[in-house]
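Format notes (please read before filing issues)

Several people have asked whether sequences and structure tokens are stored in separate files. They are not. Every record keeps both together, in the order shown below: the sequence lines, then the token lines. Line labels are part of the format and must not be stripped during preprocessing.
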Amino acid sequence: MPPKIRSDVTVQHVGDESLVLDQESGHIHQLNATAAWILAQCNGENSIESIAKDFAEYFSQDSETAMSDVATVIEQLSQTRVIVLD
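Then the structure lines:
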């Protein structure tokens, strides 16, 4: 189930960070550069595993740490309903 940003969520990039507006709830989330990078990969086509692989390469991390970091951010984004896992 590849993660995907909800259609009613707006993302505004500010430097390395991103502001995410959930138009349904009115909540605004501020993401650091790492979480913003992961969110940008959530296009409904990239699996969590492929995001973690790319993350490991981009941030020069070992694959185990990358998978843990990506899974944590994906879980947080899912809990806040910024992304969906269909």
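For reference, the curators noted about this record: The longest helix spans residues 63-79. The longest strand covers residues 9-14.
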